[in-house]
Amino acid sequence: MDNIADCVIVGGGAAGLSAALVLGRARRRVLLVDAGEPSNAVSHGIGGLLGHDGRPPAELYATGRRELERYPNVQVLTGEVVDVERGETFAVRLADGRVEQSRRVLLTPGIDYRLPEVPGIANLWGDKVFHCPFCHGWEMRDAPLGVLASGPRAVHSGLMLRGWSDDIVVLTDGPADLGDEEFGLLDAAGIRVDERPISEVRAAGDGVEVVFGDGAVLPRGGLMVASTVHQRSALAERLGLRFGEANPLSAEGVWVDDFGRTSVPGVFAAGDVTVALPQVAAVIAAGAKAAAAVVQSLLADEYGLPVPAWKEDVNA
């Protein structure tokens, strides 16, 4: 049993580091495996995180790793988990062939953002092109802004961003797919809609230029895009975890209950992988909550600690 971890954490971003800290302080033997590719690596800073507002993500993660060094029961390993097999314990296989046994598994591998297929968007992602007004809105305040979206997300994104700027243009890159009522909502908020196809988005001074197919150019201070998120890791699928219903933000978020428990007993998930709210402050809290649930589940096995009944269906 000395060689069996209490919990292997897959992913060392904000959720994983938060979980490792809670588990470490609970005197649990933890192995955190991180590939070192956080989804917000390109961001200039983390917006709205108490005590770290505007701090570059890499600095936050480095600080988190240093804090974990205080706990000899927590091991941080650079690598990639490629498979997890369920048995009496979980066999966690790494890309280098190493296999670790663990009583619990916590998935915090992060997600991948899939951006609109408009030339230039990817090169500006995380700076002048962004997806979250709470993360980047303050830095873009009062600037002329664009929203690249169509359909209901165009309305939602445009009206959300209205709190940071009174000069907003919704760019639909073709038919807007909006009804009269939706056009009316945007118009009432002073938001214009431009349905011209876009050929390119490029950097220009302190902002961007949106180049239309007809050659016209629209200067903007920044551009918020309607991105979708997808699972970065195949582990959730390999483990047979249940996924939540697809929505405009996420095509495949892992379903968890209020305690971070997945549909497979012993497997927990937290952070962006569940797409509850892809924001650093939220995923730190989710990681801590899931870690506390892991500790309680272990104590239930060891000493009979009463824990809330597990339900596969939140409506059960």
Structural topology:
Blueprint: E1 4-10, H1 14-25, E2 30-34, H2 57-68, E3 74-78, E4 81-86, E5 90-94, E6 99-107, E7 111-114, H3 121-124, E8 129-130, H4 133-136, E9 145-148, H5 152-161, E10 168-171, H6 180-188, E11 192-194, E12 198-204, E13 207-212, E14 217-220, E15 222-225, E16 228-231, H7 235-238, E17 267-269, H8 280-303
Parallel strand pairs: 1-2, 1-6, 2-3, 6-17, 8-15, 9-10, 9-15, 10-11
Antiparallel strand pairs: 4-5, 5-6, 7-16, 12-13, 13-14
Tell me the β content: 25-35%
Biggest sheet record: 7 strands, mixed
Report mean pLDDT, rounded to a whole number: 93
Q: Quick one: CATH superfamily of the largest domain?
A: FAD/NAD(P)-binding domain
Between the first and last Cα atoms, what is the distance in angstroms?
36 Å
Number of domains: 2
Please report the number of helical segments. 8
What would the keywords be for this entry?
316 residues; alpha/beta; FAD/NAD(P)-binding domain; seven-stranded mixed β-sheet; five-stranded parallel β-sheet; 8 helices; 26% strand; elongated
Word description of this protein:
By secondary structure, the protein is of the alpha/beta class. The chain has two domains: 4-113 and 228-303, FAD/NAD(P)-binding domain (3-Layer(bba) Sandwich), CATH 3.50.50.60; 116-225, FAD/NAD(P)-binding domain. It has helices at 14-25, 57-68, 121-124, 133-136, 152-161, 180-188, 235-238, 280-303; strands spanning 4-10, 30-34, 74-78, 81-86, 90-94, 99-107, 111-114, 129-130, 145-148, 168-171, 192-194, 198-204, 207-212, 217-220, 222-225, 228-231, 267-269. The strands form four sheets. Strands 1, 2, 3, 4, 5, 6 and 17 form a seven-stranded mixed beta sheet that branches. It has a five-stranded parallel beta sheet with strand order 8-15-9-10-11.
